[in-house]
Amino acid sequence: MKLYISLVVGLLFMTSQAQETFTLSGYLKDAMSGESLWGANIILGPTTGTVTNEYGFYSITLEKGTYTVTFSSLGHKTITKEIVLDQNLKLNFDLVEDVNTMDEIVVTSTKANRAVKSTEMSVSTIKAETIKKLPTGMGEVDILKSIQLLPGVSSVNEGSSGFNVRGGSTDQNLVLLDEATIYNASHLLGFFSVFNADAIKDVKLYKGGIPSLYGGRLSSVLDIRQREGNLKEFKGELGIGLISSRALLQGPINKGDNEEGKGSYLIAGRRSYIDVFAPLSEDLEDTKLYFYDMNLKMNYNLNDTNRLYLSGYLGKDRFAIEDVFGNTYGNTSATLRWTSQLSDKLFFQTSAIYSDYDYEVELLTSGSEFSWKSSILNYNLKPRLRWYVSPGNTLTSGVDFTYYNFNPGEIAPINNSSTTAEKFQEKFAIEIAPYLDFETKISDNLSLHYGLRWSNFQRIGKENIATYANGTPLTYNSTLDLFDENEAIGETSYESGDVIESFNNLEPRASLRYLLNETTSLKASYNRNYQYLHLISNTTSATPLDIWAPSGPYLKPQSSDQYAVGLFKTLKNNDYDFSVEAYYKDLRNITDFVDGADLLFQENIETQVVQGNGRAYGLELQFNKNVGKLTGWLSYTLARSERKVIGINNNEYYPSNNDQTHELSLTGIYKFNNRWDFGGNFVYGSGKPVTYPTGKFEQNGLLVADYDGRNGDRLPAFHRLDLSATLNPKEGKNGTWIFSLGNVYNRKNASTIFFRERTEEMNNIDVPTGQTEASKFSFLGIVPSITYEFKF
Amino acid sequence: MKTITKQYKLIVFLCISILTISCETDVTDDITIAESTPKLVINGGLERNITSPLATQQIRLTTTINFLSNEPNPPVTDATVSITDGTETWVFSHQGDGYYANAMMPVLDKTYTITIEWNGETYEGADPLNEAPTFTNFYTEFEEETIFFTGGYFIKFDSQDPADIENYYYYRVVKDGEYFIIPDAGNSFNLITSDKFFDGQMRSGVTLNREITFEPGELATGQQLGISEEYFDYLFELFTQTGSSGGFGGNPPPATIRSNVINLTTPSNRAVGYFYSVDVEEGSVVVEE
């Protein structure tokens, strides 16, 4: 903490200035809805300018003089203004939507030249509006599936909302909804994401060059912001689809006779109705299967400089078969944020956040019915101060406080069954992470963005920690090449608040941009990240069975170093842009399972998990066409992701489950006329690693497979084409039809290939034949869907 | 409580299959499997059975072959096999087709160690023989068909689990004079269980096997085996792998199920299969309407 304070104080004194300067500041909003504009550009010259923050605020301090300022935001008409800066100036603008460019899409929501000029790299921003124009594949607009079309991002499985970034696993993605951590971002076991696109404004994905403002995950940060609601008038939207229907209401608060309310609200809900059709099939009569979610956002202007935001999310999945099984899971989050413009140059915000993920399984086998509950809960406090020192120089500092409560499992009998009740010990942790982040313009060509995050993670009581013979839960037996479980010889008791184990780590982050000319830049970045939570999962995609385990005496924090370089270029006056990036990642203490790991109902998870190292490297290309009737992008990724864990694959490197050598995606949107839009995307990915059996033998009357090594084989290549057509309403009319066709040429992509003994049916029982077979399992054929949207 | 994982996955898999337009294609002819060196396979163990004692104890030895080959596993006919309880040693002699046998009688609470000499290498493995509690009631009962299970007469039993002892159970069904087993996703919860959640409890009305039904007039024989924790772990893996329907979301990368028989000469040249010592509680009943 001392180091942190002295850094801040040092910086405050460092920046005394000689010349007479004044500050231009203000807010930019959308003229129609009053929503604040994030990432809008304020340009005062070829190399002088700034962008608005998440709340539409900008601030730039310049020498006294006369300037021509342009305010621009994608999809809006640009405002140009001559200003005389001889005093501090406040300029607020409402930018009017530009109808001509409305249907153009750009992957980055800011103008293409910003991609060249910004110090950010490995970052993609997509507007929810763009996502809605893309084919859905499965009939639901899905943010997480849209980001899978970006280079370096791949899907864990066909149709899955789970994603891997630069060879990392799904638990290495930090998914934030209005700053609240979402622990399971999938509905219906991964087929749909929990984010209702109607309620979302912007999505920003950091694959690398992660600023020190974020921490806690190794591979990526997905920062999702909800819409704030219409400040000017009451509006509603309805969407009816084959999978679900949704509704959204928004409007001003305390408007009175003014043009704008003092605040606004937005409330959105969505519910699936597959189960509504279930009674039609006799087999599914007793089945329950649905999800719903609700999004809430409110904001209120206390005065010109102070604003309050309230944001909430509630999602639930329920899946049950009468007398057999039941499963409920969901995320709940709430964020209360206060932003305050302390001065023209100082912007303060603080958020108090609640986030909870819980799930429950009920097994209703007669005689041994029981329920199993588990949850992870956290509270955050995130104060942050941003100081707009001078043009190109910004300092951000803050602290993230987090309190965690893990409830790994609680078993309770149902219907007085013979199952005995049991509750695993709860686990507690706190994390304190102060950070500093600087953006500095060294020269007209060179800009730096660097920072430092200090993360302190403490496992605290009350908890009893098992002690093991030899001091560790597992000992590697090199003769047999396997792990021996050591006997638990006792317990150490920690009282509430006692520190069980404390980790302190420094996480330096830096990125650099060098402008070669007006249209070309070179960038380089480095970041070190630590991750203190581990997702102990027995499948590759996110499922409700996932268990989050905190670092502690027997589970070390994971860490990574990532190095990346890139070239960014715009062509033909920003009509096209192009980028190429190369990265290398070095990962430590990645968790993997011992052979034959038993994860469920396992209190001492450390006896089932081993930690090893990994490395990932790759090359990513992206080409965007930004204007015209046809817009879209092409992306290609060449990558490798490997692990090395003692006891696995003869202690040699093996491809990680997410290793995909080639991935290509082509996405296009074509505006045919005022009424028809067409969208399409084609994805090709080379096969992911699998382990095929080599030998076979018999045991207890069953044929058993024998394996050599891990992930030594590859699934066949994956490819599919999705198309969509949107029929927009006639002028002055309402109602939009969206037709979508997923997997147009009905490709049967292999989800897995599995090997088994062939069986034959005899007297209603499948009897083994002694013969073996290989079988390919594929999820989805062609999926047609229709959605109708209505706005009022 | 490993059993729950599989049941859950089975259900998830089934429902997802119904939900989505999923499909399965036979690709046996499109797949080429890498050739590997044959490994020694141990199949069998010692069984103490008071109800119907075995005349001889026997173990079968073979070697592994390519997974997609449709040939039988080649028998190992030239090995030297012996089993010891620490004081006494029994030599198991080759009877033909890879079977090695001896008329010894295993007893409770002993740990039996097998030693196999083959191809100039020595393999060794051990398993303790744990008592299986008796059936206090053994009968059949008719159950209607449900989504997951066929209808018919099922074996049911009552049994008292001994308190304060970790017990592991394995259930076998004898039908038409033969052990009956099918590769099924339910096996790892259907055929084995630990007493983790019913330690010391009286268990009544437990269905011995939820897949195998009997007709009125048939002789239904069921066995409750007392097994070691290691054997339970082995069987859990075995049933998980052989019952794997592969489908949903990808499973953890499979690995060879580790044998309890170790190659002392060249540890990396591993054997597969489990040498077990079990106690068998057996019940039989003729199904009545």
From TrEMBL, chain A:
GO molecular function: siderophore uptake transmembrane transporter activity
Keywords attached to this entry: Cell outer membrane, Membrane, Receptor, Signal, TonB box, Transmembrane, Transmembrane beta strand, Transport
Gene Ontology annotations of biological process type: siderophore transmembrane transport
Subcellular location(s) per record: Cell outer membrane
The protein's name: TonB-dependent Receptor Plug Domain
Domain of life: Bacteria
Organism of provenance: Winogradskyella thalassocola
Topology within the bilayer: Multi-pass membrane protein
A single cellular component GO annotation: cell outer membrane
Residue stretches making up the TonB-dependent receptor plug domain: 116-217
Any Pfam family the entry gives: Plug
Keyword Aminoacyl-tRNA synthetase among UniProt keywords: no
Signal sequence bounds: 1-18
Similarity comment: Belongs to the TonB-dependent receptor family.
Domain TonB-dependent receptor-like beta-barrel: 298-746
Annotated coiled-coil segments of the chain: none
Cross-referenced PANTHER family: HEMOGLOBIN AND HEMOGLOBIN-HAPTOGLOBIN-BINDING PROTEIN 1-RELATED (PTHR30069:SF29), TONB-DEPENDENT OUTER MEMBRANE RECEPTOR (PTHR30069)
Automatic annotation (TrEMBL), chain B:
One Pfam family this sequence matches: DUF4249
InterPro entries cross-referenced by the UniProt entry: DUF4249
Domain of life from the UniProt record: Bacteria
Protein name: DUF4249 domain-containing protein
